[in-house]
Every structure is written in C-alpha cells, then in structure tokens.
C-alpha cells in the first residue's frame, strides 16, 4: 500500500489586526492530529493486535514515527522484526490515516504485558510517565563509545542555523519543532518537523531504522528546542552519541548523558554554546 498523508498544514480564517488596520484573511497553521500506533503479531497461529500508543503529531512520515517510537521504547529492536507497516484497513474504522499498524514477522514475539506504562503522548511533553535510568540499563542500553566521533567547535556553532534553514514547514507556520541528523562536518543527513519535539526525533530514528542505518554512531542530533530525558532516551536507543540543542537541558537529561557517555550541548548559537557532558568529543 502506498502511504497517504493528511497535510502538515491547514488554512484557517482569522481576523488580523496590524497598526489599527483590520483584515479578514486566511492563516496557515501546523496540523495536529492523533496517531494511534498498533503492533500486529502472530501467537500460536493466531494474528493478534495491541494498541501501544496514541501521540499527537503533525501528519507526514507516519510510518517512520511508528517505527521510531517502537524502537526508542525498546518494543522492537530493529528493522528485521518488521514485516510491513500500513495505515489501518479495518472495515468501519473512521480516520484510518490516524492509525498505523506495524506488522511483526512470524517468529518475533510481542508480549503486551511488558508495557509497564500507559503510552499516551502529548505534543508538548512526550510520553507521560518516564522510565528510570535503571530501566534503560535493564533494557541493555550500553554506554556509547567515546573515540569514534569528533566534532569541531565551529561545526557545533553552525548547526542551529543549518537546522533552521531547512525547516520548510516552520517557515509557513512558525509552529513546529525540528530535529536533524548531521555528520561530523556539519552536513545534513535527514530532518523532520513535528508539533512534538519527541515525534520529530522518533521520525528520524524511524527513518534510520527503516533504511537500515542504525546505529547512528557517527551522527549528531540537533533539536530546535530544549533537551529532555525523552529526547536523550531516543538518541541513546539509536546510538547517537552527540546531541545539540538550541534550548536548555533538563537535569535528568544531563544525568542520563553523563551516565551513558553521551555528549550534550545546550544553548547553541552562532557565537557559542554550553557543554554539559562529553567534552572528549569536542574537537578544537
């Protein structure tokens, strides 16, 4: 099936007041729609389905979002587990393009009882009810190697502007977060936009997983806002050792970066930035 999408933007009628002048015009705003992510698997010869998450997202790259979310949360471990992904085709279901089914290959088990939290995500905060750092270690997430990636100070300073220049939908709406993958020379590999910063990162992870590019040991993740625990967790799951944010990190984001050997940069601007952890990856 060819993936079809709701549009990332919609037009709404507004009344604009500027310098005492009133106009009735149309404005372009970012689309925000729910997406339900389902896992479909075989158990004892019977096909079963479980709803795993509902997230508020900007439609586009829904298959990447679903795959990236499942990988980031440790529900599936890679591309080899996936047989196919499609929007819902069930009879009588409305808003089929707001439901994505991820079909696992026969032989790949899924136990819905292992879902130890309610995966409801808002566009602002990510998945509600975060797991602990210890839970990531139990999942088998190792500390990331320190010797493979070196990024110069000049490249780090240039990354926020490079990200901003590629935010096509933001230019039209002013209402989307962005996440981009760059190499050590500052060359863009992939960029995704969404009303949720966590969704933008999941779309990148899904892009990498579906393209068999994981782990992303030589990539830098750049996010347009602040850095939370959720962002760092998703970066870790994809093997991304270097995270740059335009905004501030949270305390748990710093703790996680330190614990898992990640480089975390915040308040990145053209004239400088703060390095919270992982100085060894910063080249002169």
General description of the model:
The chain has 284 residues and is α/β, with parallel strands linked by helices. It folds into 2 domains: 33-138, Ubiquitin-like (UB roll) (Roll); 151-283, Cytidine Deaminase, domain 2. It contains 7 helices and 16 strands. The chain has helices at 62-72, 133-138, 153-165, 168-173, 197-210, 229-237, 251-259; strands at residues 9-18, 21-30, 33-43, 46-57, 82-87, 99-104, 120-122, 126-127, 151-152, 177-182, 188-194, 220-223, 242-245, 263-269, 272-277, 282-283. It has a 6-stranded mixed β-sheet. β10 (177-182) and β11 (188-194) form a beta hairpin. α6 (229-237) runs parallel beside α7. The radius of gyration is 20 Å and the shape is flat. The termini are far apart.
Q: What would you say about this model in short?
A:
This protein has seven helices and 16 strands. It is an alpha/beta fold. The protein is flat and about 60 Å long.
């Amino acid at each position: 099936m060819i993936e079809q999408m709701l549009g990332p933007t919609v037009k709404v009628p507004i009344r604009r007041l500027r310098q005492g002048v009133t106009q009735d015009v149309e404005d372009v705003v970012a689309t925000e729609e729910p997406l339900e992510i389902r896992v479909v698997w075989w158990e004892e010869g019977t096909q079963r389905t479980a709803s795993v998450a509902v997230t508020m997202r900007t439609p586009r790259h829904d298959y990447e979002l679903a795959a990236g979310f499942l990988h980031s949360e440790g529900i599936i471990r890679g591309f080899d587990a996936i047989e196919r992904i499609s929007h819902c085709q069930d009879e009588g279901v409305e808003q089929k393009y707001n439901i994505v089914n991820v079909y696992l290959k026969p032989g790949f088990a899924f136990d819905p009882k292992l879902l130890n939290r309610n995966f409801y995500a808002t566009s602002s905060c990510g998945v509600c009810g975060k797991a602990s750092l210890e839970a990531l270690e139990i999942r088998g997430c190792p500390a990331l190697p320190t010797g493979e990636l070196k990024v110069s100070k000049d490249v780090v300073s240039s990354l926020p502007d490079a990200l901003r220049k590629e935010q096509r939908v933001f230019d039209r709406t002013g209402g989307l977060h962005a996440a981009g993958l760059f190499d050590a020379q500052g060359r863009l590999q992939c960029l995704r936009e969404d009303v949720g910063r966590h969704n933008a990162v999941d779309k990148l992870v899904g892009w990498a997983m579906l393209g068999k590019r994981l782990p992303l040991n030589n990539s830098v993740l750049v996010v347009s806002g602040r850095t939370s625990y959720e962002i760092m967790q998703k970066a870790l799951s994809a093997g991304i050792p270097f995270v740059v944010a335009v905004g501030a990190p949270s305390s748990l984001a710093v703790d996680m970066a330190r614990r898992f050997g990640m480089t975390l940069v915040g308040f990145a601007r053209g004239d400088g930035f703060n390095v919270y952890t992982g100085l060894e990856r910063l080249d002169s």
